[in-house]
């Protein structure tokens, strides 16, 4: 891996894959599609207080060294740019994890979700190590293939306090701009995960109860990861349901909408996820992860594999990543 000097102009840096070189040699090479990404860019470098004026606000960003082109598709673009025809858009939906609602799984301090294999002992052991019968401890442990209990919860919408989360604003900023997602695509590594569980039809995510209390009823259904991911090696995609997010700001309620929602502004959709772990062997854990690790100081040792699921909203194009630690207690 190397960087290109970006202190001047870069016209084009291209590297052909073996397939591309073969087509070029046969006179059949033609670019039909392209994608843009900004993986290298840190937008925190934008400095609107620069002493030299507005022409210098984005100078550091524009001079950020650019990665050389890759031949591997799974190393090319992790964060693709989107193109929208509506030039009046001021806000774009984002994913945000919700750990407030019942059964919402929690991440550990390193941003990992624990995913226990379905052996009847691992989930109980990890829960006990994290706090025993404490209800909060149970939220840190997902159980492979379970359609009830802890689940990863995401909301999709506008995370800004500048726009009240009223039904009218949800309609004006999201519905009217076709930014409400009815499904998301989840790309998983098929060496470790076989399927994705998402919300069943008829699931509810709202705060229409008395005094704005949440009414959240979500049961999961399994969706095989059956479509090949063209951008990530060893990955397949499962398309799961995103349900309508009807958590609104209600003027006369005593309970704030943000007591239920993680988003500060109008909400579009809610997503619930769990995963089905494949039948992993000791060799799998040894090759791709670690074995016999004392992770919690509870007298047990565990095998584990870390993996990432990539989630893309099918309508708005919002993206997020789910970092998972697959756990197996040693007997």
How big a fraction of the residues is strand?
A: 25-35%
Give the total of domains: 2
The secondary-structure class comes to: alpha+beta
Radius of gyration in whole Å, from Cα? Answer: 23 Å
Biggest sheet, open or closed, and with what strands and sense? Answer: 8 strands, mixed
The stretches of 5 or more residues where confidence is low (pLDDT under 50) are: none
Helical fraction equals 10-25%
- What is the averaged pLDDT score? 88
Task: State the shape.
Answer: globular
Say how many strands there are.
18
| End-to-end Cα distance | 42 Å
The secondary-structure element order is EHHEEEHHEEHEEEEEEEEEHEEE
Number of helical regions: 6
Explain this structure.
The chain has 331 residues and is α+β, with helices and mostly antiparallel strands. The chain folds into two domains: 1-81, no CATH class; 94-329, no CATH class. It is built from six helices and 18 strands. The chain has helices spanning 18-25, 59-62, 122-131, 135-138, 167-173, 282-288, and strands at 3-4, 66-67, 94-97, 113-116, 141-143, 152-157, 183-189, 193-199, 204-206, 215-217, 220-224, 227-228, 235-241, 243-244, 267-277, 290-293, 302-313, 319-329. Strand 9 (204-206) and strand 10 (215-217) form a beta hairpin. The longest helix has 10 residues, at 122-131. The relative contact order is 0.17.
Task: Describe what is shown at a glance.
The chain has 331 residues and is of the alpha+beta class. The chain folds into two domains: 1-81, no CATH class; 94-329, no CATH class.
């Amino acid at each position: 891996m190397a960087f290109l000097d970006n202190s001047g102009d870069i016209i084009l840096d291209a590297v052909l894959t073996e397939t591309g070189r073969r087509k070029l040699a046969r006179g059949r090479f033609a670019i039909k599609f392209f994608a843009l990404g900004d993986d290298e860019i840190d937008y925190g470098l934008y400095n609107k207080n620069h002493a030299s004026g507005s022409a210098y606000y984005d100078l550091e960003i524009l001079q950020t060294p650019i990665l050389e082109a890759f031949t591997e598709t799974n190393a090319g673009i992790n964060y693709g740019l989107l193109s929208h025809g509506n030039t009046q858009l001021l806000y774009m939906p984002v994913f945000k994890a919700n750990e407030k609602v019942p059964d919402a799984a929690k991440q550990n301090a390193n941003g990992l979700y624990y995913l226990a294999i379905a052996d009847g002992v691992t989930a109980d052991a990890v829960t006990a190590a994290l706090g025993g019968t404490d209800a909060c401890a149970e939220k840190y442990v997902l159980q492979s293939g379970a359609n009830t209990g802890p689940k990863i919860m995401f909301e999709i919408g506008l995370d800004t306090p500048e726009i009240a989360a009223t039904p009218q604003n949800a309609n004006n900023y999201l519905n009217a701009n076709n930014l409400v997602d009815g499904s998301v695509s989840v790309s998983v590594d098929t060496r470790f995960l076989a399927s994705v569980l998402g919300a069943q039809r008829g699931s509810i995510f709202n705060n229409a109860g008395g005094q704005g209390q949440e009414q959240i009823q979500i049961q999961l259904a399994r969706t095989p990861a059956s479509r090949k991911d063209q951008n990530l090696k060893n990955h397949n995609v499962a398309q799961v349901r995103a349900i309508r997010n009807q958590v609104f700001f209600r003027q006369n309620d005593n309970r704030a909408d943000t007591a239920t929602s993680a988003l500060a502004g109008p909400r579009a959709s809610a997503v619930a996820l769990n995963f089905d772990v494949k039948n992993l062997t000791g060799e799998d854990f040894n090759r791709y992860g670690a074995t016999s690790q004392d992770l919690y100081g509870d007298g047990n040792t565990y095998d584990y594999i870390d993996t990432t699921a990539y989630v893309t909203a099918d309508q708005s194009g919002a993206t997020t990543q789910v970092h998972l630690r697959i756990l197996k207690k040693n007997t």
